[in-house]
């Protein structure tokens, strides 16, 4: 299910973003999806991931706990979350999110790293997300028939 992040690889409407931020212990960082605007009604698929490297990994030390969840803009309740305390990645997926105002929230729960390039008790966390309509009916994108033939 790889995607080429261009008009001929994604089904319109679509968008994607990648980046990083430093997350401190107890901090919440909010990413506004679609520049804070309501997602188009045709958006059916939303996927997001965060990942980080903790130097304590593999040394039987606790790794920093950073969590990921989605919510409607301004809400305190999550639509979906990934709260693993023993892994260095978190992922969320939603279908049928058209018409929603989505936010992606990265939360530092137990962050103790001092050597991640972000200061004391702070971890560099990378994020990536995309959303799209997945009907495969765009004139410039792959059709459902082409996808089945390539499988």
Can you offer a commentary on this structure?
By secondary structure, the chain is mainly β. It is 5% helix and 42% strand. The protein is built from 1 helix and 8 strands. The strands form 2 sheets. A 4-stranded antiparallel beta sheet has the order 1-8-3-6, with no helix packed on it. Strands 2-7-4-5 form a 4-stranded antiparallel beta sheet, with no helix packed on it. The termini are close together. The model has no long low-confidence stretch (mean pLDDT 84).
What oligomeric state best describes the polypeptide chains here? single chain
Low-pLDDT regions = none
Overall morphology: elongated
What's the number of extended β-strand segments? Answer: 8
Main pleated-sheet profile: 4 strands, antiparallel
Measure the end-to-end span.
10 Å
Question: What amount of the residues lies in strands?
Answer: 35-45%
Radius of gyration: 17 Å
What topology, given as strand order, has the largest sheet? 1-8-3-6
Mean pLDDT comes to 84
Count of helical stretches: 1
- Overall structural class, as computed from helix and strand content, comes to mainly beta
> What percentage of residues falls in helices of 4 or more residues?
under 10%
Order of helices and strands: EEEEEEEEH
Question: What would you say about this model in short?
Answer:
With 151 residues, the chain is mainly β.
Reconstruct the topology from this structure.
Elements: E1 14-24, E2 28-32, E3 45-51, E4 65-72, E5 78-82, E6 89-95, E7 102-110, E8 122-132, H1 144-150
Antiparallel strand pairs: 1-8, 2-7, 3-6, 3-8, 4-5, 4-7
